[in-house]
Design a protein that fits this description.
Length: about 425
Amino acid sequence: MILVFYILNTFVNADTDSDTYSIIIVAGQSQAEGSSTSRVNLPDDSDGFYKRNYSAADSATKFWWAGADGKGPETLEDYLRLFFPNNGIAGWSQSGGAGAGDVGSQRIKTLVNGQTRSGYAGNEFVGPEYGIARSLYDKGRRKVIILKVSYGFQSLEQSNSPAIPWDWNIHSTGKSYDKLKSEFSKLTSYIRDDLDAKYTVDGFFWTQGGTDTIQPSYADNYKENLRELLLAARNDFQLHPNAHIVTAKIAYQQCVDHSFPLIGIYCGIPWGKNLEPLEFAFEEILNGRGATVQPAYVSRLNQVRDSIQEVADDYSWVDTMDVGDQPRAWDFVHLNEVGQLTVGKRFTNMYKFPYRVDEANVVVGSQVRTPTDFDGDGIANNDEDNGNSCSSGIINNQNGSTDNNGNLGDDDADCDGFPDYLDRVNGVGSGL
């Protein structure tokens, strides 16, 4: 009990020289979750990036998570059960456990105790958040909170398949995208109302797409579905005008090349011939012919990869990365611990993160920039959340008033694209 109180009290009071939190969002399916990884297997490396299980970044970075409750299908046997009634409905778990409810002080955790894994205490999944946290910490950034919502095997296409109870389509009601919106609202309300602090949303990392390669219609619609999701996300999650969305290209060629003939199991994605209606490649699995009997699968894989690239090409605030070079876990589908760390680090290097000052003052000429006044204009960060926004909206016509809403990234009195807390001058340019 004493230890729990100390951890929570430390979160509220630590780094009191800065009262602005930097939110990073991670979302997607099983690669975002970190399937087939364990925190105890995090590597040790002397180069300062790969660190043991408990690094300074892991305990300094705060974590708010919602994801699969472990009751969904993960193996071929689990999927076969979907054909029978009363198979059980997959649901959601969350940081802090079910008993935490929506109490922010119980939901907010650190990386080392945030993503609980039923039956595996102390051996939680490792997603890209570990690489993100460690890289940002090494860059000197503090007060980072990673919000992650992940659910394995969920498509971006709207789906009625029993294998996909929580698709990510923005037009679906009460599913994964709505879950992310709900969790974002709870987290930002906690920061604003309980901690009496401010925040900026400095990045969004999306890693998903494997399930949409199974069915031709899903793959055909992926580009437009992704475009809609990213446009909605930039607004719904109040991204800073300088923040980017980074997408990871799915890369399952290792799975295709090393499936049944080499490891004695079918490697996951090409199990399915169809999702609506649900069909499996029974003959191919039994005969051990691997993914080579489904050449159309490889074509759909490339179709989804191309869609991810094309959407990134269309928007200056969207970047994409390839992860095909990264090592896989035993199933040849999911990244292992080293792969997750590297992919998270790549995300932090894809664009220039919004400026902030952490811990020590920064003196530039006559300017003194501080952790409570990032632009050194003599107006505290807290006092620049004043609702002075352009009619066009600094974050894509955000709905509702921005006055004292907690978000510093949506107030722009002179309409020059620089939010007030990073703008020293009244007119074009920031003066920084």
